[in-house]
Amino acid sequence: MDAITPTTARADETTMRVELAAAFRLIARLDWHEAVANHFSAAVSADGRQFLLNPRWMHFSRIRASDLLLLDVDAEPDAALLERVDSTAWAIHGAMHANVPQARCILHIHPPYATAIGCLADPRLLPIDQTTARYFNRIAYDVAYAGIASEFSEGER
Question: Is the distance from CB of 105 to CB of 43 less than 8 angstroms?
């Protein structure tokens, strides 16, 4: 594997910005989002600790590569950047990029059918046919959900 240099890191970040912006627009076109309460992030550093994230309250259909925020798990965002970052996105995506460096891209969406399943008394996806069987023992369920995850500790959990 080639070493990451400042030049290749910038090129990789630029490519990731373009591709992530395209993913936002595709998800909006497919209507797999819910208003502006969804987040995507993509690691741009080798260790995953620097990542791109969509800005707070911007609809997926409008996000451009230049709109994406560059965050660093090890650095507290300054006041100006904090104004543009959704606290739940920082808590969830920051914790995931800090703890799972191999996760290069994290997509948090609320497609209507997933939201409907999540609202059931038993939201488990049971392996009752070939489609659902492919996910058997490959899905994690958050049964301790206690509201909006705006604290880093919730992201850690």
Answer: yes
**What phi-psi label fits residue 109: left (phi over 0), alpha (psi between -120 and 50 degrees) or beta?**
beta
Q: Choose among 32, 48, 29: nearest CA to 99.
A: 48
Q: What are phi and psi of 46, to 5 degrees?
A: -60, -35
* Residue 86, Cβ density class (10 Å: 0-12 exposed, 13-18 middle, ≥19 buried): buried
Q: How is the beta sheet containing 50-53 ordered, strand by strand?
A: 69-72, 50-53, 39-43, 105-108
Q: How far is CA 13 from CA 30, 40, 53, 103, 108, in A?
A: 26, 15, 12, 16, 20
Q: SS3 breakdown of the chain: % helix, strand, coil, rounded to 5? A: 40, 10, 45
In angstroms, the first-to-last Cα distance of the chain is 33
Q: Is the pLDDT of residue 156 over 90?
A: no
The answer to whether the beta carbons of residues 123 and 62 sit under 8 Å apart is no
Place of tokens 């994290």: 106
pLDDT per position as a tens digit, 80-123: 888 898 888 888 899 999 999 999 999 988 888 888 888 888 88
